[in-house]
Design a protein that fits this description.
The structure is a single chain. The longest helix has 15 residues, at 385-399. This protein is an alpha/beta fold. It has 14 helices and 21 strands. Helix 1 runs parallel beside helix 2 (57-64), helix 1 packs across helix 8 and helix 9 (222-233) packs across helix 14. The chain is elongated and about 80 Å long. It has two domains: 15-188, 3-Layer(aba) Sandwich (Rossmann fold); 197-398, CoaB-like (Rossmann fold), CATH 3.40.50.10300.
Length: 403
């Protein structure tokens, strides 16, 4: 799961009311409460009587740092009406897990317990994350109730598919805490790229020598994936052309997996039509073997010479097109960053380039970068790559022509 801790400004300080209904997925709600707290949200928990059968109020109190409310009659001198007090000033209510029963009661405007009364009395967005057996989810009654909630403007998150506690497999699993946190982050992130299409490359390339060996580099893909995630949160239709990495695809991003530079070039050109922005983050190998052996090369004890030929420069090719999108390059240098990065930007006629020293970011979770554009250099403070990515996307959004 991505570490969102340092993505400030989206959920930090926002009051999120987490409603937990009965179901085995209630244990995931505990992890969700912790994750929301890590991104700076002020989490308050409303736990139903059925939810108490699965997770204790003390668990959520420890994770949220607040009293956990379980009944309409939990009022005190300060909060005489908890269903009103809890919702007052809330930025969002998230019901996770939302059982079939709670969905039915929400759809029909019931207010016979704290959680349903809270949702009925709200003046903030309501998110519902269904969690139930697949037959209950597929039942026409549940589908009618979900359609009613959507028609009422309630945001339905999920469900996911997979193995269930009952031993069956199918739709009905609650989305994982990371996906739910991502959904809230996306909802509260300014949609600076709404209506735009963005193509991003990320990761290393692998240039095969034989079926088991090849030339590659130490790029982890973390910066490119963080950029793609930030673009998606910003409202862009985001396509990620990725070299071989051990990272999950960011939420809302279409990922295309490739290995070699030639495949990456072909896939970029295939998805480029209609793109407003092309961000070349991938560490594409400059050279590849002139020939790839069809079988594993055997060790002989003698020196081996490898003939290398240049790979295509994908960024330069895209930037030179008559219909070129707004192109953003990346330059990782071992020395003289300003000179090499600005030289690369001017040679390829890029409106924007992001540079960093290899020691500052390759393979790690943090990065120190400098943005170069026609107005000069704009250094960003060292920060986790997720935050750096957000700042880069905000900068490019300001440079984009109106459209």
């Amino acid at each position: 799961m991505e570490n969102y801790t340092h993505i400030i400004g989206c959920l930090r300080g926002r009051k999120i009311v987490l409603g937990v209904s009965g179901g085995i997925a209630a244990y995931k709600a505990a992890a969700l409460a912790r994750e929301l707290g890590r991104v700076g949200a002020d989490v308050h928990v409303a736990l139903t009587e059925a939810g108490l059968r699965f997770v204790s109020a003390l668990t959520f109190q420890a994770l949220s740092g607040h009293r956990v409310w379980t009944s309409l009659w939990d009022g005190d001198a300060e909060n005489g009406m908890p269903h009103i007090a809890l919702g007052r000033g809330a930025d969002a209510i998230l019901v996770a897990p939302a059982s079939a029963d709670i969905i039915a009661r929400l759809a029909h405007g019931r207010a016979d317990d704290l959680l349903t009364a809270l949702c009925l009395a709200r003046d903030c967005p309501l998110f519902v994350a269904p969690a139930m057996n697949r037959q209950m989810w597929e039942n026409p009654a549940t589908q009618r109730n979900v359609a009613t909630l959507r028609a009422d403007g309630i945001i339905i998150l999920g469900p996911d598919e997979g193995g269930q506690a009952c031993g069956e497999t199918g739709p009905g699993r609650m989305l994982e805490p990371g996906a739910l946190c991502e959904a809230l982050l996306a909802f509260f992130t300014p949609r600076l790229l709404a209506g735009r299409k963005v193509v991003v490359t990320a990761g290393p390339t692998f240039e095969a020598i034989d079926p088991v060996r090849g030339i590659t580099n130490s790029s982890s893909g973390k910066m490119g994936y963080a950029i793609a995630a930030a673009c998606a949160r910003g409202g862009a239709e985001t396509v990620l052309v990725s070299g071989p990495v051990a990272l999950p695809a960011p939420a809302g991003v279409r990922r295309i997996d490739v290995a070699s530079a030639l495949r990456m070039r072909d896939e970029v050109l295939a998805v480029l039509p209609g793109a407003d922005v092309f961000i070349a983050v991938a560490a594409v190998a400059d050279y590849r073997p002139a020939q790839t052996a069809g079988h594993k090369l055997k060790k002989s004890g003698l020196p081996m010479r490898l003939e290398l030929v240049p790979n295509p420069d994908i960024l330069a090719e895209v930037a030179a097109r008559p219909d070129a999108p707004f192109c953003v390059g990346f330059a990782a240098e071992s020395q003289e960053l300003d000179a090499y990065a600005e030289s690369k930007r001017r040679a390829k006629r890029l409106p924007m380039l992001v540079g960093n020293l290899l020691a500052d970011g390759v393979g790690g979770d943090d990065n120190t970068v400098v943005i170069y554009d026609d107005a000069g250099r704009h250094p960003l403070p060292r920060a986790p790559k997720a935050l750096v990515a957000r700042q880069i996307v905000e900068h490019l959004a300001r440079l984009l022509p109106a459209g």
